Amino acid sequence: MTPAGTFVVNGIERAVVNQLVRSAGVYFLGDVDAVTGRMLYFAEIRPSFRGSWLEFNISRNNVISVRIDRRRKFPVTTFLRAIGIGSNEEIQKLFASVDNGAEAFIENTFKKDPTHGSAEGAMEIYKKMRPGEPAVVETAIDYINDLFFNVRRYNLGKVGRYKINKRLKLSIPNEPENWVLRREDIIETIKYLIRLQKGDVDTYTDDIDHLANRRLRRVGELVGSVAVRVGLLRLERTVKERMSLLDPKTKVMPNQVINARPLISAVNEFFRTSQLSAILEQTNPLSEVDTLRKLSVMGVGGISRERASFSIRDINASQYSRICPIRSPEGPNIGLVTFMSLYARVDEYGFLLAPYRKLEKVGDKVKISKDIVYLAADDERDFKITHAEVGIDQNTFLTDRRVPVRFRGDFLEANTEDVNLIDVIPRQVVGTAAALIPYLQHDDGIRALMGSNMQSQAVPLVRPQSPVVGTGVETDVASSMGWVAKARHDGEAIFVDGNKIVLKISKPTREDEDEEEETDKIKINGNLETYLLTKFKKTDPNGTCYSQKPLVKVGQTVRKGDALIDGPAAEDGELALGTNLTIAYMHFEGYGYEDAIIVSDRLVKEDLLTSIHIEEYECEVVDTKLGPEELTRDIPNVGELDLANLDEGGIVVIGAEAGPNDILVGKIAPKGETELSAEERLLRAIFGEKAREVRDTSLRMPHGEHGTVIGITILDKEKGDELSPGTSKLIKVKVAQIRKVSVGDKVAGRHGNKGVISRIVASADMPHLEDGTPIDIMISPLSVLGRMNLGQLLETHLGWAMSHLGRKITVPVFEQIPEELLIDALKKAGLPSDGKAQVIDGRTGETFPERIVVGTGYILKLIHMVEDKTHARSTGPYSLVTQQPLGGKAQMGGQRLGEMEVWALEAHRAAYTLQEMLTIKSDDVVGRAKAFEAIVKGTDIPQSTIPESFKVLVKELQSLALSVQPLGIVTAQPLATTGSGSDQLEEKVQKEVKELEEILEAKTDSEDTPAHEASAAGENVISVKSDEEIKEEVNE
């Protein structure tokens, strides 16, 4: 485990996500009865890890029943008898103080109760819970006691006991022996339920989505309960099995009965496969911080994505200042994965706490005190709390007579003197990412969500700039994960280079003594403190580059807390996810269509949006069945040009440029002996040696990748490195590439204003201002209207003024920034007060007819780069069953021609294109091989044959016991239409017409002939055909 609270598993840094689960305890809920329309209440007692659920219901007849583990119902009096409260008098006495109305709940329940006394109560429950087993009184009582009063079978946990005590106003000590159910718990639960049904004023139902009823299971608890506990139970089982097999007289050593493997495998399984163990998102420092502040309701003991209701996903009033209302994934996990608010804390029980300042009365005024209190969600219930943006004078007195307040989940208005607490700071409502968005209050919620998510996808740039318009949180975020190092003491820099800074420290003060210990990044030697820098570290999972650089020079005096080292995406100790660019909201030749963005080539030339990306390629040297593989530069059938970058051991040299299919590690494996040809036999007879049969198994650069080799790591089993079985060596090659911004890259602002670069225009052709300042980036003005993210315009205006004044400004989230301040800043900078300027077309020199919004905005380059997405295939792997090409870039797949694409080609009557798409370009195995051969030889591409999918269909039909026999292609023979053939056809037609005419004449004659003459003309009569036959012949 690292100091940051992450875990390194198999060389990959992982973080355990905090799980938000329903707390153990007692809950009171209500439901409207469908028949009577009356609200009927019920109570649930939920254990923590193990144990039976207990549910108490009130029926429409005022009968209280109990249900164990959601199975059979019993009258509650039967259950009370079973736990030792036997007689009716005892039960009535217990509930006399609450059940004294006309409802007579206990009296009505007695009528339904068939039992009398404790033994009968226990037997009744035992019979219904274990119907097939013989009922004995002692067994029944033991069963009930085991169910709720045995520590091994029932556990409320520390949290469950705390919640029950708090909800039912009990004072049972929170000790492990009290983490089972007590009789007082059951009695007080039934009492409260009766009072709730009667409508007592001080009773209320619980909201199961309220944060008073949901708690965090943090990393220690998750590893303990999900991994270690499971492993220990398996270990216990194996120890007991082994002990039962041993002779009682023999002396036993612990190693004979204990095998730690079940425990180790359980812990490994949790870290590798659990839904709550995630790779630490290291795209930039913000994404790293947010991974550790992430909350999830999914995982072991949580809710699955499919079963999650809308109420779980929705924002609850109790999340104010505890869970960020803005940031959440956009996909199916929306609302299920959330993030902690900026200043939220977690108490010992796992409940989220929010900070508030106390208000105190001074005379007839109300003053904000300096005391900060942290409250859980249920502690807020009895306080009236106002927000930090109410009127406050210089002496921290509230100036408004009435203020908006939150009270018991509602938003109300109250007199100032009635208010108890006030928010510490306006931005405490939002999380880390949202707190970095200036003018957040002017953005639509959906766009704010996108903006906060996209900041975590920003790539660290080669030349980062901290924002001109910031929010004041940048410094804290940059230093939170330790990438920006600060001086721990006053001192002087005596040595500085790219790898370390040595600080000669002054005498440490008493406050510094707690910081004296060494870390993996800070080494202490007397009064010298050495700060180590990380250079070109590949991050997971996106391969961005983390690199630190020194901020001090030799001889410079530093104070405690000064920034010494800048981390990735940081400038002078401030978070710098992007760069400040001159923006114009305007159209340009239609290239701004569908949110596309036009940029100047200055961004490419000056590396303003350039980033470094590192990929790591691994090559294992393994022992095969035919012999061990070996590293070598001597690879069969490879030219000297391809081996130029390899050293004598066959490994690429550092600094070499590598392109697609270039060899990184030369490696050969032995091949099976084959029958030798006559020439080979002759060679062997002459030279008397056995020709080595090897095959090339070298590690090559993947398709479409390129870069510079910056690092090589060789792990060798002979030198004591731990490798997997059968592997003798492992070579890791790091390849870095500099990626300049290009067409197709995704860029975005902080307000959800994202887009893809559609064109990079020469700086001279870009529009420019009247003073000659060229525009860096053009955004379509249509992209602002419908999206309602006006924060970007305000940021642009203020950024323009500040960049002219040579200053940076902080605009904290949700703080009131008067419009006059913006106008004054523009006027002070000598700029138009409406933030618009006259813009000149760089190509023609003409002025655009309308004045355009121009200014300085903060632009991020996101991880979605076109170079990672571009993919092409000529031939490649095919699916085994269908013989169709695989899909996706990772599988070197093809582009799928789906059902709708087939319709499109059919609509355009592109029959030949369609046929080759469905045959030789897909699964016609013979045809595609012949087509490839024809392309290579330069001959005509032959006709396609039967596709494999047709054969699969035939086989599937045959598997249904249907006899399917393909008859082959039936083609119609064309009729000859020229020469002698056409004359023959004409004669044939004329002959057939003549025959038909004769038949028709004969028929008419036969109709006129009298009956007695019919026999004489019998031949004619017989040869006459029916009308239907004649019609058929005519049709033919």
TrEMBL record:
<keyword id="KW-0804">Transcription</keyword>
<dbReference type="Pfam" id="PF00562">
    <property type="entry name" value="RNA_pol_Rpb2_6"/>
</dbReference>
<keyword id="KW-0808">Transferase</keyword>
<comment type="similarity">
    <text>Belongs to the RNA polymerase beta chain family.</text>
</comment>
<dbReference type="InterPro" id="IPR007121">
    <property type="entry name" value="RNA_pol_bsu_CS"/>
</dbReference>
<dbReference type="Pfam" id="PF04565">
    <property type="entry name" value="RNA_pol_Rpb2_3"/>
</dbReference>
<dbReference type="GO" id="GO:0000428">
    <property type="term" value="C:DNA-directed RNA polymerase complex"/>
</dbReference>
<dbReference type="Pfam" id="PF10385">
    <property type="entry name" value="RNA_pol_Rpb2_45"/>
</dbReference>
<keyword id="KW-0240">DNA-directed RNA polymerase</keyword>
<dbReference type="GO" id="GO:0003899">
    <property type="term" value="F:DNA-directed RNA polymerase activity"/>
</dbReference>
<dbReference type="InterPro" id="IPR010243">
    <property type="entry name" value="RNA_pol_bsu_bac"/>
</dbReference>
<comment type="function">
    <text>DNA-dependent RNA polymerase catalyzes the transcription of DNA into RNA using the four ribonucleoside triphosphates as substrates.</text>
</comment>
<feature type="region of interest" description="Disordered">
    <location>
        <begin position="1001"/>
        <end position="1036"/>
    </location>
</feature>
<feature type="compositionally biased region" description="Basic and acidic residues">
    <location>
        <begin position="1001"/>
        <end position="1011"/>
    </location>
</feature>
<dbReference type="InterPro" id="IPR007642">
    <property type="entry name" value="RNA_pol_Rpb2_2"/>
</dbReference>
<dbReference type="InterPro" id="IPR007645">
    <property type="entry name" value="RNA_pol_Rpb2_3"/>
</dbReference>
<feature type="domain" description="DNA-directed RNA polymerase subunit 2 hybrid-binding">
    <location>
        <begin position="527"/>
        <end position="891"/>
    </location>
</feature>
<feature type="domain" description="DNA-directed RNA polymerase beta subunit external 1">
    <location>
        <begin position="356"/>
        <end position="424"/>
    </location>
</feature>
<dbReference type="GO" id="GO:0003677">
    <property type="term" value="F:DNA binding"/>
</dbReference>
<dbReference type="InterPro" id="IPR007641">
    <property type="entry name" value="RNA_pol_Rpb2_7"/>
</dbReference>
<dbReference type="GO" id="GO:0006351">
    <property type="term" value="P:DNA-templated transcription"/>
</dbReference>
<protein>
    <recommendedName>
        <fullName>DNA-directed RNA polymerase subunit beta</fullName>
        <ecNumber>2.7.7.6</ecNumber>
    </recommendedName>
</protein>
<dbReference type="InterPro" id="IPR037034">
    <property type="entry name" value="RNA_pol_Rpb2_2_sf"/>
</dbReference>
<feature type="domain" description="RNA polymerase Rpb2">
    <location>
        <begin position="893"/>
        <end position="965"/>
    </location>
</feature>
<feature type="domain" description="RNA polymerase Rpb2">
    <location>
        <begin position="279"/>
        <end position="346"/>
    </location>
</feature>
<dbReference type="InterPro" id="IPR015712">
    <property type="entry name" value="DNA-dir_RNA_pol_su2"/>
</dbReference>
<dbReference type="InterPro" id="IPR037033">
    <property type="entry name" value="DNA-dir_RNAP_su2_hyb_sf"/>
</dbReference>
<dbReference type="InterPro" id="IPR042107">
    <property type="entry name" value="DNA-dir_RNA_pol_bsu_ext_1_sf"/>
</dbReference>
<dbReference type="InterPro" id="IPR007120">
    <property type="entry name" value="DNA-dir_RNAP_su2_dom"/>
</dbReference>
<keyword id="KW-0548">Nucleotidyltransferase</keyword>
<comment type="subunit">
    <text>The RNAP catalytic core consists of 2 alpha, 1 beta, 1 beta' and 1 omega subunit. When a sigma factor is associated with the core the holoenzyme is formed, which can initiate transcription.</text>
</comment>
<feature type="domain" description="RNA polymerase Rpb2">
    <location>
        <begin position="48"/>
        <end position="217"/>
    </location>
</feature>
<dbReference type="Pfam" id="PF04560">
    <property type="entry name" value="RNA_pol_Rpb2_7"/>
</dbReference>
<dbReference type="Pfam" id="PF04561">
    <property type="entry name" value="RNA_pol_Rpb2_2"/>
</dbReference>
<dbReference type="InterPro" id="IPR019462">
    <property type="entry name" value="DNA-dir_RNA_pol_bsu_external_1"/>
</dbReference>
<feature type="compositionally biased region" description="Basic and acidic residues">
    <location>
        <begin position="1025"/>
        <end position="1036"/>
    </location>
</feature>
<dbReference type="InterPro" id="IPR014724">
    <property type="entry name" value="RNA_pol_RPB2_OB-fold"/>
</dbReference>
<dbReference type="GO" id="GO:0032549">
    <property type="term" value="F:ribonucleoside binding"/>
</dbReference>
